[in-house]
Specification:
Elements: H1 3-18, H2 22-34, H3 39-67, H4 69-91, H5 108-120, H6 123-132, H7 143-171, H8 173-176, H9 179-205
Length: about 210
């Protein structure tokens, strides 16, 4: 792949990971209730969960690409529409982050396992990967080297994102409960998702 493609994927992944979802709510809840010690096991669990969801998604994408390039191209169009829909939904979400402090005693292993389950078993996560990843895959190039680079990049960012959220929640709790801050994240993230979807449609049409 070109460096431009990798940089675009890295930037898009970073933006999408920052947007609060079920996994981030779980990370923040534990960090609010139990402090910074939850950061590492939760971040590892999130990365493992994303690896699980991404693996299932990539297996499906690989099978699609091997079966029909036309179907794979159609999936890219559907994926672009899905990104636009997600962006509109996120833009209208407002500034709420319903993360209540969890004070139940939990070992590092339990924290890791809980984060892994929530991340890996979220059906929206698998749907997202199926819609998101094809936008950056070149069907004319070798598939597995592309998959390896994209997976390593995304998982590194996912770990760093969860770790940062946990630290912020444990050290600067007011930020996590500030509707303006969360609203700004939602609106910026939603706008960028819409822009990514529109840009993808424009490139396809071009």
């Amino acid at each position: 792949m070109t460096i431009e493609t990798w940089l675009a994927f890295t930037a898009a992944s970073a933006i999408l990971l920052v947007i609060p979802g079920p996994t981030i709510l779980l990370v923040v809840s534990y960090a609010l209730g139990q402090g910074w010690r939850t950061a590492l096991p939760m971040a590892v669990g999130v990365a493992l969960g994303d690896f699980t969801a991404m693996s299932f998604s990539l297996l499906g994408l690989g099978a699609l690409l091997a079966t029909s390039a036309t179907v794979f191209t159609l999936l890219k169009w559907v994926g672009a529409a899905y990104l636009i829909w997600l962006g509109i939904k996120l833009w209208r979400a407002g500034g709420t982050l319903d993360a209540k402090p969890r004070t139940d005693a939990a070992s590092s292993f339990k924290l890791l396992g809980h984060a892994w389950l929530v991340t890996a078993l979220n059906p929206k996560g698998i749907t997202f990967f199926v819609a998101f990843l094809p936008q950056f895959i070149d069907p004319k190039a070798d598939l597995f080297p592309q998959i390896g680079i994209f997976a390593a990049t995304f998982l590194t960012l996912a770990f760093a994102n969860a770790f940062t959220y946990a630290l912020i929640a444990s050290r600067a709790r007011g930020v996590m409960r500030n509707p303006r801050a969360i609203g700004a994240v939602n609106k910026v993230g939603g706008g960028l998702l819409i822009g990514a979807g529109v840009a993808t449609v424009a490139v396809r049409a071009g």
